[in-house]
Amino acid sequence: MKNLYLLVFLLFSGLINLQAQGTKGLGTNDPAAKKILDAVSAKFKTYKTVQAKFSLKIENSAGKGLGSKSGTVYMKGGKYRVSVTGQEIFSDGSNTWTFDKPSNEVTINKIDPSANTITPQKLFTNFYDKDFLYKLNGPAKVNGKTMSEIELTPTDKTKPFFKILLYVANNTIVSTKLFEKTGNRYTYTTSSLVPNGNIPDATFVFDAKKFPGAEIVDLR
Question: What is the four-CA torsion angle of 4, 191, 44, 165, rounded to 10 degrees?
Fold first, then answer.
């Protein structure tokens, strides 16, 4: 479940590439929200690489803090790396390495192109067009700044969450709040985003020399 929330962050924290379309029979999407999401998509398509710092805050339904994390995400073509408190995920487009710091263990998996696995690359296409209805709620204040608030609701009501709020400024989604059915709320915020930087391919491959003593579980 933690990885699910991490991927949701990757989708919505300024790195989104949506091609917004209506979902017939389930409701009507808001053209005003579509215009904003299309602009976000167009901006992201100009990036050859992305490096972004983010934070995650977890609260219960009463607004009490349950924890927080911070991290960095790197992307280049079909490759990605996510570094978050206690965990690192590497992917070179063929293999995925998931390193768990507390257990000092890395799990290696082969990527199966036919398995329809959710990856950041798939999330940056029109994957979520099929899964969400969206509307523009209007302007909202976030940390003293005025942004556009877009509300998404999943068409699949069996999802563990029932609503996502996106906060958009300058054609970038800078903050996302996910509402779980349990009452917990997850807020992702991008503190910096650097596009088109020089990111070596080695960034996306697990280097055992940099993780001495790590137990390797090879599931390929």
Answer: 50
